Amino acid sequence: GDNAIRTFTNDRYQQVMNDNPDAIIEVVDTFGDTLYRFEVIGEDGSEHTISLSTLQYNTLVNLFSGQIVPDEAFTDDVEEFFALNVDLPIDVVEDAMFHLEFYMGQFLEAGQISNGEDVLDEALYDLRERDDLMYRVRVDHFQLVGYTDRAPSYWFGTDNNGRDLFTLIWLGARTSLIISFTVAILNIFIGIVLGALGGYYGGKFDLYTQRLFEIIGGIPFLPALTLLVMRFGSAPWVVVLAFTLTGWIGPSRTVRAQFYRYKNREYVLAARSLGAGDGRIMSRHIFPNAVGTIVTATILMIPMVIFTEATFSFLGIINYGSMTSIGRLANIGQTYMHQSFHLLLYPSIFISLLMLSFNMFGNGLRDALNPSLRGVEE
Asked: Which of 5, 203, 248, 343 could form a disulfide with 333 if both were Cys (CB 3.0 to 4.6 A apart)?
């Protein structure tokens, strides 16, 4: 286990000795100190009394000193303080976080809080101080959190907050895949509709829509994403909107070229001669011949969206808050790479394999649906 030296209040020491005495390896020192006690209320109304030593209380005050931005990194620091520095049970940590986040919400303006001390003044409204006996003890951390038979094992290790990195990577992959598939489906749908109309009818409609597409396509992606995030936050729908804003233009041009290519073929003219309407011709005679190219474009769009989303998450432009993403994991890994290199290594390997897999699958699908392009790199 993690044989670490922790500081326990007298109440906490007595509680551990009664409930789990094997977790305490030895008492290193005892000393008198000021005990700070306050109440927190959880989401379900449960109440807990939290006791802090002077050092722990000063650490909490320093976390909330001055102007703060209550983003994921900040809440992780506060959660790590209660879970590791104070050694609170996980349910008490969750209730303490809910309690503090409730009061932080009352002071939040434009994504930041001008004075974190005000939050503590309100949240710790019943703060009490008294002299007490403190214990500096060496503990077996895994015994302390309830592992009695054996210590837990983690395939990829743990992150800076002790969470399983293997699980976090799959949670991040879920976020990236949901966003990439949603973006691909929306872009292909819009591209098919507008591209099919422009390629089939041509004329002034095609001329005007192509000029409009050129104007929209000139919108830079990064400024558009930044403005949307600044205005609406980094909710997943905002990221999807940013990718869809101009992402449908490429598929629309591909579909337009396919419809323009097939609309004057003999079988299309025969169908028109037999009285088939425009809708039937487009959906039953032209679209099936173009579906191979469209499906390939959809598959190859997915890794592009995954990589771009991960890049901007890594740079901190996209921050989903409580949701995990591969880019966010890589960003945290960069911060701790000198102490824990695996935090950056495994997310990087995962996203590389994910990109490679989708690209190889897309190229194979393209070769199967259009053998004339076999071996050609797009």
From this structure: 343
- Count the neighbouring beta carbons within 10 Å of the beta carbon of residue 54: 14
Q: In this structure, are residues 14 and 137 in contact, taking their beta carbons and an 8 Å threshold?
A: no
Residue 146: Cβ-neighbour burial (10 angstroms; 0-12, 13-18, 19+): exposed
Asked if 323 and 233 count as a contact pair (C-beta separation under 8 A), the reply is no
* pTM given for the model: 0.63
How far lies 301's CA from each of 147, 256, 296, 304, 371, in Å? 45, 17, 8, 5, 20
Please name every residue paired with 4 in a beta bridge, in sequence order, or none if there are none: 139
d(CA 93, CA 81): 9
CA distance 249 to 280: 24
Tokens of 333: 């890994």
pLDDT in single tens digits along all 378 residues of the chain: 456 677 788 887 888 888 888 788 888 888 888 888 999 998 888 898 898 888 889 999 999 988 888 887 788 888 888 887 777 777 888 899 999 999 998 888 877 888 889 999 999 988 988 888 888 888 876 677 666 666 567 788 877 666 788 988 998 889 889 998 999 899 989 988 888 888 888 888 888 888 888 888 888 888 888 888 888 877 888 889 999 988 888 888 888 888 888 787 888 888 888 888 888 888 888 888 777 777 877 788 888 888 888 888 888 888 776 678 888 888 888 888 887 888 889 999 999 898 888 888 887 877 777 655 555 555
Using the CB atoms, write b or e for 77-99: b if 16+ within 10 Å: ebbebbbbbbbbeeebbbbbbeb
Task: Spell out where 42-171 has E strands.
Answer: 47-52, 128-140
Instruction: In whole angstroms, give the CA distance from residue 200 to residue 264.
Output: 9
